[in-house]
Amino acid sequence: MLAALCLAAGGFHATVAADAFTLSWRHSIEKIEWRESYLIRDNRLFIADAAVRGSGAGMDPPEGARLEHGAWHYRPAQPWRESIVLSRSEFAGDYLLCTERRCAPLETWMAGAPAGVPAELSACRTERR
Fold it and tell me: The organism sits in which domain of life (predicted)?
């Protein structure tokens, strides 16, 4: 059974059927790619892997990160998240949200959401049996 990712901003809400997703973006100053891969489990988000292609301006890879294919890979010490809040600014590039079926800018997934309002991503709550 597929889990679902809930997207919210202001009064906007959308649901994306997915067991996993990847969120990537470019640092607004360094222009370095940052990527986080999540699994949706037990009504929470789990960071399975994070990677950054370089360092600088407060984005140094954490201790224990390993260099693979030109990117530093790591898993945060606390990989479970209830939600992720993302700023949405005209001064920084958009996030890219990818599932197994589709990859598109966050703005596309959230068509109709108010501009400039932070987006919250969370596991859609499901009843346990």
Answer: Bacteria
